[in-house]
Amino acid sequence: MTDQIDNMMPPAEYINDNYKGSGKLADKRVLITGGDSGIGRAVAFHMAREGAKVAILYHSDEESANETRKGIEAEGADALVLQGDTANSSSCKEAVEAVVAQWGGIDVLVNNAGMQKPYHDLSEVSDKDWQQHFDVNMAGMFYVTRAALEHMKEGDSIINTTSVNAYVGNDVLVPYTATKGAIVGYTRALSRQLLSRGIRVNQVAPGPVVSEIQLVFKDFDKDILESMSSPMGRMGQPREMGAAYVFLACQDSSFVTGQTLHINGGMITNG
């Protein structure tokens, strides 16, 4: 399944026939924030192919969310599409409660919702913009997780999306990078707190990926978007992220917690 996001990037690919599901997540109940597009959509499709029931929480793009719903259902999986704002605590709690009401619980939580905005200089960052980055990227992760944990049990999994930028920095994405660094610390601390409950907490740190989130560079500096790459000479595809989330969600990773999977085309992070 491909999607031409913009002619300045290659079409996004979310899943292909080479990925064979084997029931790794059969009957698991999954909630993915930011699941309507990009990495979130790819994760939704991969988990659906593994037999999960998949709920996605999206912010405003109803058309994109419905496209994701169709893709989940095309895999023969149950889908639940929820609109909400991860920057709002009540909205996050309502989304969790909707999943629980539909399926009776949550076995896998994927915190993927995020936003980014570039700036040439720190003086350009308003108080409002700084706070918005932390409200959406970091506070939302806390709100959803806190609500979901009331319904999670031993053997369940939480997977957070951080970024290569948390490890290598990005001079035009200082607020975004700061939130992604916070997620690293949050993941490591929460993984230790939940050891006694048998709930694993890990994170994926993608490199540059073909997705809508990159379009903020189009009007800022299109050269950044056109030159966005990795040591492999290209951006990653959303489908190349999906299997990592499946691994961290299923029992193949039963001895993995507090860890980071770096999927970045060869960018060395030393993290």
From TrEMBL:
Keywords: Oxidoreductase
Pfam name, any one: adh_short_C2
SUPFAM superfamilies linked: NAD(P)-binding Rossmann-fold domains
Cross-referenced InterPro entries: NAD(P)-bd_dom_sf, Sc_DH/Rdtase_CS, SDR_fam
Any GO MF annotation of the entry: oxidoreductase activity, acting on CH-OH group of donors
Family: Belongs to the short-chain dehydrogenases/reductases (SDR) family.
Protein name: NAD(P)-dependent oxidoreductase
Source taxonomy: Bacteria, Pseudomonadati, Pseudomonadota, Gammaproteobacteria, Moraxellales
